[in-house]
Amino acid sequence: MATVCVIGARNIPNFIGGIETVCAQLYPQLLKIAPEYSFVLFTRVKPVDKAHREYAGLSLKYIPSLDISGLETLLHTLFSIIYARLFIHPKIMHLHGIGPGFFAPLARLFGFKTLVTHHAVDYERPKWGRFGRAFLIKGERNACRYAHYVICVSQAIKDDLDTRFPNNASRYITIRNGGSLDFTDHIDESDILREFSLTSEGYFLAVGRLEETKGFHELIAAYQQIKQPTKKLVICGVGIHAEQYAKNLLLNASENIIFVGYQTGERLKTLYTNTALFIHPSHMEGFCLVVTEALSAGVPIALSDIPPHREFKLPEACFFNIGDINAIASILQQHDFNAYQSREAFAYQRLNTWLVNAEKHKVLYKAL
Fold first, then answer.
1. Within this chain, do residues 257 and 363 fall inside the same structural domain, yes or no?
2. Would you say residue 183 lies in a domain?
3. Cβ contact 178:25 at 8 Å
4. pLDDT tens, 172-191?
5. Quick one: which of 180, 200, 264, 301 could link to 274 by a disulfide (CB 3.0–4.6 Å)?
6. How many whole angstroms separate alpha carbon 294 and alpha carbon 171?
């Protein structure tokens, strides 16, 4: 049996973050269709007990690091690769993110078949200082140069890499993320609606980390332009390594602007299925999992006009320019949101399952 080591997630399941969600969804599916592989996922959040050292057949190996933004990922990845070389001897090393991608040359030096999943151009996020940006930029370059394959979670990322690093374009593969929530057997947990004094189709919903690139401050500014709002604004998420921005955002909380924190499972599904409109004003994404969730829920959607958002086959009416507060306010004041949904987009999303995603990963693993 060949072992695959996975690095990049803080922990799984039920941890905030795109990489964490992808790992929690992808690898259990891979185990089902590729039993010839075993998986060890390195974590940097200490498990509370022995029961949390395994998830859905995956082995979770805790490797300590420093909880310092900019150093946490660097040190954890380095320690994990060294541990894997000394004690596990995997055939394949799968690095998630361009931060861990910095160590693709080391993984190759140790003899591992190396894949890097490129989730986003993280160095464009304003939270990073000079050192953090330089590390992530170099991480992207190392991934493109040294990884056997670079998995791009959207076609927009692949197109960008093809343009900037054309010499290694044969190594870039697009595997779009699947939908992270299954609404097939969903039954509303109406307690969450009562808890926050919400009614069905009586609110707008935004979901994501409370960080500047998500554009939630612009969404709030647009909502505050409405003189007599008939619907509330609900923002679901918390801040991670963007604590000051999150604190400033929370100052806008009111009877009509409601922060519900981090939600999962049926409670999160209930928020999706009962919203009048899902809106995502993000300035940058690699692939947007929350859009797949809204598509899976079959609700009206409005998105900032960025390349990854254009891959969901939504109609033109669903898009507004980045940071255009007046355009967002105009959308929020519509009386009917039927123009902000598409049967084609809903059907397209249903085809993009995690099983399909896992099958494509299996092909790459076999090729290695």
1. no
2. no
3. yes
4. 999 999 887 889 899 999 99
5. 200
6. 32
